[in-house]
Amino acid sequence: MINKFKWLLLVSIVFAACSDDDNDSTTVVQEPVTAGSADFSNYVALGNSLTAGFSDGALYKAGQETSWTKILSDQFALAGGGEFRIPFVNDNVGGLLLNGMQITENRLIFNGSAPVRLIGTPTTDVTAHLTGPFNNMGVPGAKSYHLLAPNYGNIAGLPGAANPYFVRFASTPSASVVQDAVAQNPTFFTLWIGNNDVLGYATSGGDGSDPITPPTGAPGVGFDGTYNTIVGALVGTGAKGVLANIPYVTTIPFFTTVPSNPLTASAIGGGNVAVGEATIDQLNAQLYGPLKTALTAFGAGDRVNLLSATGANPLLIKDESLTDLSVQLTMAFTPTLGAQTAAFYGQVFGQARHANANDLVLLTTQGAIGAAPVGIPAPLNRYGITYPLEDKHILIPTEIAELKAATDAYNATISAAASTNGLAFVDANALLTRVHETGIPYEGYTLGSALVFGGAFSLDGVHPTARGYALIANEFSKAINLTYGSTLPMVRLTDYPTIRPQSF
Length: 504
Prior knowledge:
Layout: E1 43-47, H1 49-52, H2 61-65, H3 68-77, E2 96-98, E3 101-102, E4 108-110, E5 115-117, E6 124-125, E7 136-138, H4 164-167, H5 177-182, E8 188-192, H6 195-203, H7 223-235, E9 240-244, H8 265-268, H9 273-297, E10 316-318, H10 326-337, H11 339-349, E11 352-354, E12 360-361, E13 394-395, H12 397-421, E14 424-426, H13 428-437, E15 440-442, E16 445-447, H14 466-484
């Protein structure tokens, strides 16, 4: 847990041109901003929460005002771009209401120790329909095939098939996102979609509750058929545009913040090292020692090790890719525990192992570590310590490989669509990999992926901060300039905040 807040003092340096009596002056010649072969007069943005400006675990007004699409539209305005209409929510609290009942959570704030939900009552009720059309067609939660789905904005489909964010601004209950976008006859578009097609699987720990969209298949089923249909509809209007690919989930702090080995003596003892050391001795004698002996007899002794009183210990997890040894463990434990208890222990530890650096612990799992699993009695009633974390809590290597394979396939489809249609292309995967691996230097600072203080990602560990969105907007501008010969300027990252206060 982060224990203190570090404020960064940003110093702005202003350079003034000066001249002397001999007319010896320094002048800065600024390149005129032009659209090149692009036409920005009617820009429409399609996508999901990233396009909408979602940040800190919610969609709130200030976040929408600093979305990369809004930043980009401001640059377009310098080169003939028109009005960019956004379906704004009503406040900076962030939650949504349905007939007065809250259906989405408030935004996160940093309380000096950790991200927590803002306490407050949201005022945005999805029953208050907005009159469009809107240029920002980003719909939080949307997967690729949702953009083609009719009735995605039908309030009668809540909760379930419809999306509360799109309910607010769909032209009709039966319209699809793509239909509403195409109906505006855009001259230019951006499309960044597909993140949720893998992210839902990842944030559910690969437990099967939110499957990966198949990379191939018909429109509405497979990613390639769906994506090419969306692009075809947009370019069919004569519009030019930009496509962006999908980052690996392994580059975002939701999967990189909680280590696989957070269990020190202090952590196990609830802050009391002596209690933790005594607990470790007891666990080694009564649980891990006998378990390791039994597993060793079945050729699987490397699954667990004795805990260390002086080092950082790994979490105990369930790995469904392992051979299930529940029957063998039941037989081994029966003489000492009795048949019924032995069967329970065998079931619990049949596919258990200690986590390692190849596993990714979900950010939301942090609150589960050490908590009591429902219905599990002592002494096994501590998640990650005496009871294995479940599939929903962690990504194991086989699941990470599934996610990478799907993302690579999606990105091949996106790259091919850009090439085939002569569209600009943003390698968002490469950009966020750089942010994660090395950070991106700017104005004496480095934009990194660490939660809270890295600067690039907001408090939810998935969506960018305003500064992160500014970085993304610049990447889109570079791609547009390269492909269409435009001269869009870059924005200063320090003009955009990273952590927003409770009230502003």
